[in-house]
Amino acid sequence: MATSPPQKIELNEEESAELLRCISELSKAGLPLDEGLDAFAEEASRRKLKQAFRQLAAEVRAGGNPLVDHDLSFVRLPKYHQKLLVAGIQSNRLGDTLFDLLEEESWRKEYWRDLWAALSYPMLLAIVTLVLIDLLNVFIMPMIQSQFMSIYEEFELDLPFDPAIFQSTTISWTSFFCLGMVGMLLIPACLTPAQAAMLRRSLPILGKVHWWYEVLDLLVKLRILIRQGLPISEALPLLKDAVSSRRYSELVVIWGEQLEQGKSLAEVWQNSFDVPSSILPLIRWGEQSGQLDEALESAELLLKERLALRRELIRKIGPPFITTIVLAALFWAAIRLAVLISPMIDLIQALS
User: Fold this and answer.
1) N or C: at which end does the chain have fewer Cβ atoms within 10 angstroms?
2) Residue 146: helix, strand or coil by DSSP?
3) Cα separation of 270 and 250, whole Å?
4) How far apart are alpha carbons 343 and 172 in whole angstroms?
């Protein structure tokens, strides 16, 4: 009875990165590939990764080279990772290449976690403040107002304010906040990549963080390919499915075509509003001196420093800003309650 051929195993970006990490460890340790893949298969917690490790080990034992001949392998990686494996093998720097890539990706993930940790406290405090304001504005204050107004009407008091102001429609700020969050998620999906990128970059404080983070992702992956000896015009289009930004996914193909027409990378990026102008002198120097990979690495360090400074800025100004809002909300509630109670105080003094 003939056995059915194995099904293709498509790995996503995260699963592929985990597989590359394991291959990098095997390459640095000099262990046999098939035995090492079998060992990692036993330790893998995800079923798809376990299947991928075992399938690659079986293909290696069958005499194949799945790390190079991806079209003949049943394990399919993202195109960027495929090309990176081939380039690393051809340059005899597979372990260093994969380690460099994974180290940079680990730095960016750790930065994003630290940024969200810095934002979590101010955001939580802001949400609690909104809920308390709505609790006062929508439920507690209208109930107190109705009770006091009934007393004032019973004693036929002349009030120093128009009672109609308490009959206005109450506003739920929590609802506005939730609608704003939904809008931030849905509106970019309805815009073109260029429009969505411009919208995100226009956000106060966080807009630049998002932009620099995407640029850093582009520079790191481009530098690693160039360091393997790939021409810049060939390396850029390979990033189409590798970069995290939809906008850059479109632009890398266009930039590659412009480079093939004889333009330099600095010239191409100088005519684009999607690349920070501050890194252009480094890119220009790298092309003129033939050290573009070092220039890209220097630009990466520059962006990392900016991202770290912006994270510290958010961490320092976030709590005072939210605390000011909380105090303003409490002051507003106190003033509103004082205006409402003041006629009652006059009534008590008159009766006494």
Assistant:
1) N
2) helix
3) 17
4) 28
